[in-house]
Design goal:
Length: 126
């Protein structure tokens, strides 16, 4: 079953399978299935065509995938353009939400393998 250009995993329940779509988490998936009157425990292969169409119709009202990514990048660009503190942190690829950077923040700053030593070198044996 394909929705919004994403193939849903066939072996998972619908409330879990919908989370494969960017912008749909567990609570949103449950809400979508409730509105579409589809059982949470059904798998994508077990859905009838009416149920598939109902889920698609509800998902069309949500902002997911490309639209959501476009909006997020536009928001970040706006922060950079107005030169806000958060925009500067985004531009410098540093943590935006006040986390410390003396230690940690390796995933945001990159170079995951590099760590600081104690400052003292080991003696070489001759």
């Amino acid at each position: 079953m394909r929705i919004s250009g994403i193939t849903l995993p066939d072996n998972k329940r619908m409330d879990i399978a919908l989370t494969a779509i960017y912008g749909v988490g567990r609570p949103a998936a449950k809400r979508i299935l409730d509105v579409a009157n589809v059982s949470h425990s059904k798998k994508p292969t077990d859905l009838s065509s009416d149920e598939e169409n109902a889920v698609r119709k509800v998902l069309e009202t949500e902002k997911v995938e490309g639209d959501l990514k476009r909006d997020i990048s536009a928001d970040i660009k706006r922060l950079k353009d107005i030169k806000s503190y958060r925009g500067n942190r985004h531009a410098k690829a540093l943590p935006v939400r006040g986390q410390r950077t003396k230690t940690n923040s390796r995933t945001r700053r990159g170079n995951v393998r590099k760590t600081m030593g104690s400052g003292r070198k080991k003696l070489e044996k001759k």
